[in-house]
Amino acid sequence: MSEKHINHLVNEKSPYLLQHAHNPIDWYPWGEEAFAKAKEEDKPIFFSCGYSTCHWCHVMERESFEDDDVAALLNNYFVAVKVDREERPDVDHIYMAVCQAVTGQGGWPLTIVMTPDKKPFFAGTYLPKHAKWGRPGIMEVLSMLKEQWDQNRDRIEEIGEKLAQSLKQPALKPEAGQLSQATLERAFSQLLNDFDPNHGGFGTAPKFPTPHNLLFLMRYWRRTGDKKAIAMVIKTLDAMSRGGIYDHLGYGFARYSTDTKWLAPHFEKMLYDNALLCYAYVEAYQCTDDPDFARIAGEIISYVLRDMTSPGGAFYSAEDADSEGVEGKFYIWSRQELLELLGPELGELFADVYNVTPEGNFEAGSNILNLISHDLYDYAAQHDLDIHELEDKMAEARKLLYQAREQRIPPFKDDKILTAWNGLMIAALAKAARVLQREEYAEAAERAVEFVFTKLTAEDGKRLLARYRDGHAAYLGYVDDYAFLLWGLLEVYETTFNPKYLRQALEISEELTQLFWDKENGGFYFTGNDGEELLLRPKEIYDGAIPSGNSVAALALLKLARLTEDNKYITLIETMFSCFSREVQHYPRAYTYFLLALDYYLSVPSHIVIAGEREDPEVQAMLAVAGGRFMPETTVVYNDPVYQTDNWELIPVAAGQEAVGGRATGYICENFACRRPVHTLAEFEQMLTKQRVGQ
To answer: Which helix (H) or strand (E) is 545 found in, with range?
Structure first.
């Protein structure tokens, strides 16, 4: 990397990660030192929460936090505390709820002013130095708050107490028999009502990928055979991969689209989006056999392994939207640039295919590469071109443009390693390895698992930690860390069939229930019972940009129950269904990952056991076919002679289902009854076809 690139990254790194060259405010991290100082000096706490790739966090840093006048006010009259929301989502959850309650909206940077005992009395988001665009200025806000703190202290403390109490909602009491197949049907109807038939996705701009909506629809299609469900999936995934939200040169998806057509993204790339989208594209390939879906999944993985993987094998968090202070500058092109780089003939062809015009489709005559108007097959047919020749030319052009783009100043990379988001990427890699038969994906997933258990656990080797950066792990893991890693471990087990991953999954599930389970009302708290005492212990079920820890835990524990025949997990999840039933019933489509667990619970139990020597071609073929089929309700087990004792101990369902006569043997069991064992791939595939869609 050139000196120019290095200097730029140092200057542009997020205030939530590194000290800026000019950062005159005496920032404290969230912790006892800051709270003690606030109490000792009797000052309110000015709290700023953001994240490394947040555009408006950068803007507020430049406009306000690097300003000497703002610094003087903050340093003299407040204790300034800065938090990275991705490292402390527990703190962010609580005070974001305050902001939404006070202002009717939320967002980052999150700005809260609170008493020394952490009770909030002011909430907002982005604050410029002085009032503009209808927004209050931080100078005026700080001056007003200082005056009120000095003159109306009792009133301020009363406001803080009321806001703190308002957060403490009554506990959700379990209710029996509320969630059923009718809940799944309501969620489907709501998604269908919100679906954009022209461009895919749900609702209007801005459009977020929300892959768990698509995972739900694929299972609904599997359950009912309703073609509208799978059609929504196909349309959405196809439209996103054609749009500007997808990086056609370097691969990977941006966080969301600012328009309905998926053309103009908010350019930051998040690990969690790409992990969940990779998983969705793999499952869509299973459902449709469309090679383009497999290609996109593979390209996402190529991007993550190339650009987002640490030397130790774990995965970084995000890449910023901005470079050189301009959003999207790294990714956009003028038509003239293309002609100069590719030459007139190839440049004109590429510009025509990827909708690059002299006027531009983005800001200031610039262009976002996209295939919204047509794909290569359409273009070839319209212009009487040989499709293979056209594909070769476009591949050559993309390679040249990618190489040219690599010479630009890149966006900042947030090199935090988060346990939760790594769990999602581990799950996606393992799933892709199994379906696409790519062993290197499984190896990448295993390296990341090893990193987590080596670098992201406390001294006892058990308690998960949330974040690793610059050789240091910190913060007790949250429910998302445990639930998402549990999902990843189960996917790795189902791909490698190495029982060590199942043992690790069982250990994580035990820690999950001991640390986070609400013994009185059910469900998992966001924070562990050994964590810092905050204003409250939140309990999340809403599936937003990322599924909630409760939702992911519910499905993972149900799968663990089917694998191990341990009914204690079933009891936990039935309590969760009761605990969250009223909330989910109110608007089911907001809880689509949680409904994956409900769908799994309502499905007829089925499992497949394949036995025999791993080197046997028939065994390998059966494993490949079972791994490639879309059978989300079915548990697949390989009874490997190397691990036979472990298999029987951990997975009672495999006991006795051995290779008959030393031959490859497949067992398919459904609704507590097993069919006769088979020994050839043809027989095995014939039995699998009886597990029909909409059965």
So the answer is: none
